[in-house]
Design brief:
It is a single chain. With about 325 residues, the protein is an alpha/beta fold. It folds into two domains: about 5-95 and about 185-295 and about 305-320, P-loop containing nucleotide triphosphate hydrolases (Rossmann fold), CATH 3.40.50.300; about 105-175, no CATH class. About 30% of the residues lie in helices and about 25% in strands. It has eleven helices and twelve strands. It has an eight-stranded mixed beta sheet, sandwiched between helices. The protein starts with 6 loop residues before the first strand and ends in a 5-residue tail after the last strand.
């Protein structure tokens, strides 16, 4: 897929705080700052990989971008509209072009609905077709994701995990969206099935001109499918660059530590490479450190890092990093 120079989704200073209540009267005593000032551009036709360790805010970022969570602050621009300011009916119309594929294929499908009802539901909800037209569309979508149209009368429990994820993909494609958030769509699948699903994503992107935000923690898979990669830590973007650039020349200490943990099937290289082991635990998003979020675990942090939060800056063309020492 050829990546356009046109920005399809523009995220500006996005924040998503979840309130913390305590006591008999349930008074608000703080916030969990799951996403705390994320800014990025997603270009038409590209796959932007979003990586980071568990609990860093990847999934919340994806859900907030497509307004499954109403953001605490910030803007999400799509087709000239700020999604954060749209009313419910306006946002409902935008959802034709903005969809999500969920992580767990076992929990994201209604067990009481047949495939025809699951995949045809968005078509029916938007009034895009009726009766026989819906049946034809569902059959076409099943063929598109490499499933037999004869399965339309079956229920989700009759399928394997990989097949269920294909059903979820078919449902997300029902209204011909432009932008899809893929929330770790292969992490719940067997390793032998993961490559098939990834190849399906790439084929669909070629055929339909889709744009993906691909949330994952499998760094080797992200390198395979993504055009650019954003590295997230404790609610912020630490580094953003082209795929080959970020894997070949990481600048942020956290990115270096992440990449050093990727298993490599070469025993000689594996023994000689330097493994970076981070000390300490990830701070609580309810009480993040002052200044740089990573400073409590950073091997090169100093007093300056504790006093001021580093802003994203462009070190080389297209390579952005939030670190004073990069």
């Amino acid at each position: 897929m050829t990546v356009s120079s046109e920005v399809l989704v523009k995220v500006e200073d996005l924040k998503m705080y979840f309130p913390i209540y305590s006591g008999i009267f349930q008074r608000k005593v703080g916030d969990v700052k799951a996403v705390d000032g994320v800014s990025l551009d997603i270009y038409e036709g590209e796959t932007l990989g979003l990586v980071g360790e568990s609990g860093c805010g990847k999934t919340t970022t994806g859900r907030t971008i497509i307004q499954l969570y109403k953001p605490t602050a910030g803007h999400v621009w799509f087709q000239g509209k700020d999604l954060a300011t749209l009313k419910s009916e306006e946002m409902r119309q935008v959802r034709r072009n903005v969809q999500m594929i969920f992580q767990d294929p076992y929990a994201s499908l209604n067990p009481r609905m047949t495939l025809r009802e699951i995949i045809g539901e968005p078509i029916l909800a938007f009034g895009a077709a009726t009766g026989r037209e819906i049946d034809d569309r569902v059959a076409d979508l099943l063929k598109l994701v490499k499933l037999s149209p004869d399965f339309v009368g079956r229920y989700p429990h009759e399928f394997s995990g990989g097949q269920r994820q294909r059903i979820g993909i078919a449902r997300s494609l029902a209204m011909n969206p432009q932008f899809i958030v893929c929330d770790e769509p292969i992490s719940a699948l067997d390793v032998s099935i993961q490559a098939q699903v990834i190849n399906l994503f790439e084929d669909l992107q070629q055929q339909l001109g889709l744009t993906y935000l691909f949330v994952a923690h499998d760094l080797s898979m992200v390198r395979h499918i993504s055009n650019r990669v954003a590295v997230m830590y404790l609610g912020i973007i630490a580094e953003l660059a082209d795929r080959d650039e970020i894997y070949g020349n990481p600048l942020h200490p956290y990115t270096k530590a992440l990449l050093s943990s990727i298993p490599i099937p070469d025993p000689i290289y594996y023994e000689t490479r330097k493994r970076i082991v981070l000390e300490g635990d990830v701070p609580s998003p309810a009480n993040p450190p002052s200044g740089c979020r990573f400073r409590t675990r950073c091997p090169i942090g100093d007093a300056h890092c504790a006093e001021e939060r580093p802003e994203m800056r462009e070190v080389t063309a297209g390579h952005f990093v939030a670190c004073f020492k990069a």
